[in-house]
Amino acid sequence: MNPLLQVRDLHVHFDTPQGVVRANAGVTLDVIEGESVGIMGESGCGKTVLFLSILRLQQPGRIVAGKVVFDERDITLLPEADVERIRGRDIALVPQNHATALNPAYTMRDQLAEVVAVRESDGRLATVLGRRATSLDGVYLDEVRDVFRDLGFTEERLLNRLLQSYPHELSGGMRQRVLIAMALLAKPRVLIADEPTTALDRATRAQSLGVLRQLNDRLTMLVVSHDLDAIRKTCGRVAVMYAGRIVEEGPTSDVLANPLHPYSRLLIAAQERTRGVPLPEVFTDTSDLIHVPSGCSFHRACPQMITRCVEVEPTMHDCDGVSVACHLYEGRL
Amino acid sequence: MRTLVIFAMAALLALTSLVACVEGPADSGEDVVLRVGTTKPFKTDSRFADYWYGVLSNLTTHDSLIKLGPDMTPVPWLAESWTISDDSTEFTFTIVDNATWHDGTPLTSADVAFSIQYYRDRDPQAGWMQDLIESVSVDGNDVTLSLTRPYGNLMTEFMTYSVIPEHVWGDVEDPLTYEGTDRTIGSGPFALKSWDAAAGLFVFEINDDYWRGEPNVDRVEFSVYRTMDALVMALASGDVDTWWDYSGEFPYTHVPPLQDAGDIEFATATFLGVPAALGFNLEREPMSDLSFRQAVSYAIDYQQIADLVFAGYGSVPTYGFVPPTHANFNDDIPQMEFNQAKAAGLLDSIGIVDTDGDGIRESEKGDDLTLTLLTRGDKTSIVRSTEMVASNLRAVGIDSTVKALDTSTWIATKEEGDYDLVFFRATPWGTLMHASNASGYFDARRTGGGVLHNFGAEEYLDACDARLATALPEEQAELDRTIQELHQRYLPGIALVWIESVYPYREGWENWTIDHIYGGVVNSFSWFTVTRKD
Amino acid sequence: MRLPAFIMQNRAAQVGAVVLLAFVVVAVLGSVIAPHDPWAHFGPFESPSSVHPLGTNDVGQDILSELLVGAGVSLSVGALAAMLAVGFGVFVGLVAGFRRGVVDNLLMGLTDIVLVIPALPLVILLAAYLGSSIWNVVLVIGVVFWPSTARLVRSQVLTVRQSGYVESARALGAGDAWIMRRHVLPNVFPLVISKFVLTVAAAMLMEASLSFLGLGDPMVKSWGMMLHYAFGRGGFIQGLWWWYLPPGLCIGLCILALTLIGLAFEGESDPRLRRALER
Amino acid sequence: MRYLIALFVIVSLGFILPRLMPGDPLMNIVGEEAYYASGGALDELRSDLGLNQPLIVQYGRYLGGLLIGDWGYSYLYLRPVFESISEHMGWTLLLMLPAVVLGAAIAAVLGGLAAWNRGSRKDAGLTGAFLLAYSMPHYWLAMLVLFVFSFHLGWFPLGKATSGAASSLPYVVDVGWHMLLPLAVVTVFKAAYDFLIVRSSVVSIYGEDYILMAQAKGLSSMAVLFKHALRNALAPLLTVTAIQFGMIFSGTLLIEVVFSWPGMGTLMYDAIGARDYPLLQAAFLIVAICVLIANFVADMLYPKLDPRTR
Predict the structure, then answer these.
(1) For B287-312, how does the pLDDT look when each residue is reduced to its tens digit (9 = 90+)?
(2) Complete DSSP assignment for A12-80
(3) CB contacts < 8 Å between A and D, how many?
(4) Which residue of A has its CA nearest to C273?
(5) Does B have 3 or more CB contacts under 8 Å with D?
(6) Which chains touch D (3 or more CB pairs under 8 A)?
(7) Which ipTM value was assigned to this complex?
(8) Where are the domains of chain A?
């Protein structure tokens, strides 16, 4: 069937004092309605830029080539107003850093109500300053209750306190829940979860993983994460990104059990060791994004480099269900 | 948001509190209204506390015994006549009997006597009276002053002291701090209707039963501006009809826009004072040497100062310092001469020569001669003149550093004698002080803010004393000429320029009388001569 | 960090630098390129002509020459005053930052107080007291403008001290001097430079204000004094724009240029870059 | 406590500085030409004003007076200092407070827009314009404004706070008419200053995740700017405004002179010229207190604007 979200050969560039950073250099990815896809990679591999571009929030980056088709419409070409309508309502985001993702100046009630208001009408200034966006009552309050119940947050009294409080008054787990709740309140078709489990204590991690697992039978998900467990538990399919490209992609079980691309191997091995703690940038050298090395961008750090890697840029090959961009697998079927 | 509210409330508060403290009088129909602009820093309507209002009241709300007529001789006012004893120690004034105060009570010779004593005993400005006026006696309409010594300048002095009502001031201990609303009551042609500090506006209403008859103007408004620029704009754009200043001259640099305005005309009169002058520190070498002072006098390009600083309205003065406006002007005294050769010669003759060839002459001690020029930083025309003199001196090999200071600091520095040349101005009234002929500025025995008191030559002091000792016009005339001569001979100071004052007024006003002391066209005489054709 | 790098990244700053450079060149060559001696007297109130491109002032001095020579005076007044202020500020800031405790409290107390006193009235007071020599103007302005620098430097010193690597360096027995050279100065430097540049601007503005109020040095041709005379001696009221506009514009442009450069040092690069690229 | 110390030092500074200056305050009471061969009455006056006592005694009296709310007696106005000041203070505040609020408001909106469209032509235009205003000598611009709008176009009065007698229109309207130009000028300078602050703080706020989040929620850019970004830029703006207060006073001083505005600025300027010690002391004190109050208010309001600091 036709994928709900198609990313086709996406190129996103950033102009920096040091030069043009090619943050995404030809990303291609399909997401079919109902499935959930994981994206792995280190800091700086371009996964953040990828989902920002899907929401067209990559500024100041420039989408120089490729397209992002959502529901038959190319987001990169839509007028801003339409994209605003897609954001939140069709594609919602659960941001990575719960500590900073909530506006310190507004209470939870305000920020949740805002979501409802936007969903019900639109995102114009008048709306978000309007009554509905600032007070949360009646059916909407019930809705919020339900959402939080789903998130395993049953106690009425606590909920009321939660609604009254400002971000800095809440624990990390709480904030994480609120963020997820906000995403759900928007009733999106696609949910992008950016590092949903980092910066959380074990217990909360387990919880929010649980939540995500329930969610992925309900809606389409894109999970960006270091965390193998997170990916394993929540995603049917996983893509490994390196230096702005997807180097390997396939069913989660296969890829995690038996990664093909040398980079995937190193990455997954390292991740197994560190249990989801974000990696220091061992393999990626962000300067590669500016002065792109010839051939395979990984060849410098690659333990299995062959001369061909320096000359020719590898393309995606399919080898039994898993597609991988590496010369080692060329011609193998 | 909360901030906004608070600010807004505060602002509102401020506003309302202000609304409370001012009333706006309504103006009536076809009255003849004269609107006068001024830049004098008025503070209050207390004629004792506010020096400038004191002056203003003398020509609006109050009357003096006599005034100085346009021809610079005393004319009767509240005193319809007077007699002076031959030894000039007894002055008897006969007071008019139809004068009344604004509140209706008649003005009597008793009021006059009271006023003189009150000034003597209570007014800091009248300190000079204390050891001079021995007694004041009243006999019918006559008021007689007995002096401890002959005093020739009394008549001139008295034109600046207005008579005040005994029934107001009788039991006021300290006039400076008296707050009573009746402190503005006088006998003059106008009564103060309002002083609005926020609007910087004095409104004077006509005094219908003024004892000398009704003035030609029904209401006079004095509007105070902070900068001359603003005032001239007001003149040109018709907000005010004319300009008033006491002791200052209208800046010529501001004349052209008024000429362009089209409906402004100018009355002119030779200024009684000296708008820019320099004095020598006679305590110091080489200023103590007459030849040096003469050398300086030759070094200065007077015509240039007249042309550039005073825009051609100036003329080259004489060695006698005071201008021809003075009643007994000595016209035998020669004009100042600009002659660098003579200057150089004189300097050489007294051993001030440039030995090391650096273009600067050295004093006897051998170090470069660098004079300290002390000047009034707040009077641009004086500063400009100083600038000119500095370059003139440089041209004859005398270097200088200029100290431009604000009035108070200028006075203090001058009092400490911390200068070689001091630049100042002699006000119209100032030139009449003391033994007249600007002696008030030079006589070493004097004290005071604006004066130099730098000159103590026997001859000169004696002449001053003699002049002070006689009130008889012909004797005075003789001595005036002498004093001017002595000034030429000793040269304690140099008048840098004399000027034609210009007094702008709006077309349609005619027949002004010019008063050399009280601000040109706006004065006690004009009230009865000026007319407005409609 | 090399200064040029800073400027080069920021087009506005480049413009500022160019303008400022132009002014500095004029300031240096002023008396050389001036068509006349600014003190020489020609006909008063002449309109612009080939001889006097900007006409002459009330006493017939060539306005263009005044302007050119004035550049030197105004700029050096600004620069000297700023050096004084920033120098002192840095000193106080460093001492307070390192010596903590009583010294710190005292110095910062003083700083706050000076911050609270309205600058201009104080400057007027001091200027009137010291007399209007150009040096006093410099001194006075210097005295008033140091506190903000002091606060800035101090806070920098403190943050640097807090930082782990300095703590450990201390543990290894590194002295204040070393920490200062190695860590504080590099961090403080751009801020101080920007503070300096901005203070120069403020000082020039202050000099102009003082002159306007008649507290400038009449024997020195600064732009402020030119304006003082343009207003005091009828240039303005007579609408001689070639007299009262150029000095004002020059002051404005200079300050604009300085501000542009100063802001560039605060080196704002788009914060969204980091988020996008380093995750 | 720090406030108190600051206050004390300022009180003392206000006392010492004027007295360091050369010049005799009495000169201004008796006028430039007045002379006093026998200065009896002057000495009397001098002792009335307590000027003949040693400084330390005068200082003691002054402090004592302050404690019982006696601000001393103005030589220049020859009336209790407090009256003169409260009168002029009203006018200055009438000019300043609206200017502060308006300036901040304008700066907030435009600064926000400029930051939002960072690097765009709009940004360049706005920033350029405000920088230019920021760079012009205050009095110079004020003079030009007065020249053009009041003199040439004749739309506004040539300075002063009211037309007094000619207020056939209601007083308040009259005042409003008079204050429009000076207010505009002060506002422009205040706004120019704030603009830079707001712009840079909003620019940095853009890096914040909650802005990204707000966008991801589907808020329009205006909504993000005005509800989320500006809201968080208010706190720094408040702080700056408080610190600025003294500076605004200074700026207002010159503008008051140009517009013959009867406020603190002109008062202080005259007081300095006249060596009116008591008036100067009080004026300094008042202004300083205003600044202190401003800072205090800011400290109070800050938590309201930034919940994190509660």
Answers:
(1) 999 999 999 999 999 999 999 999 88
(2) EEEEETTEEEEEEEEEEEEE-TT-EEEEE--TTSSHHHHHHHHTT--TTSEEEEEEEEETTEETTTS-H
(3) 93
(4) A60
(5) yes
(6) A, B, C
(7) 0.78
(8) 105-186
